[in-house]
Write a structure and sequence with these properties.
The protein has about 90 residues and is mainly α. It is built from five helices and no strands. Helix 2 packs across helix 3. The radius of gyration is 15 Å and the shape is globular. About 10% of the residues are buried.
């Protein structure tokens, strides 16, 4: 694997771990237990525990659902406050 690819993977994993830490802190601040969150996501409390403790990495869809279950967006978790718009293909 090329060094650039390894670095890209490491950055993505670091970003996911940061999102997980923020989501875990928000879950705790809201007083939501792992079992309650697991029920909302259709998974187990053990899976939530593994995600929160770095033993497993949730998929992008799981991260999105986790944020939605807590009433936030991943953008809010990342600190993005402005809406992001994508330019149409071919547009400047």
């Amino acid at each position: 694997m090329a060094a650039a690819s390894r670095h890209a993977i490491a950055r993505a994993l670091g970003r996911a771990r940061a999102q997980i830490a923020r989501l875990a802190a928000l879950r705790q601040a809201l007083g939501i237990g792992r079992a309650e969150l697991a029920d909302a996501l259709g998974t187990t409390r053990q899976t939530i525990y593994r995600w929160e403790h770095g033993q497993a990495v949730p998929s992008a869809l799981d991260l999105w659902a986790w944020a939605a279950a807590l009433g936030v967006t991943l953008g809010e978790i990342e600190g993005v406050t402005e809406p992001v718009t994508l330019a149409a293909e071919g547009a400047p």
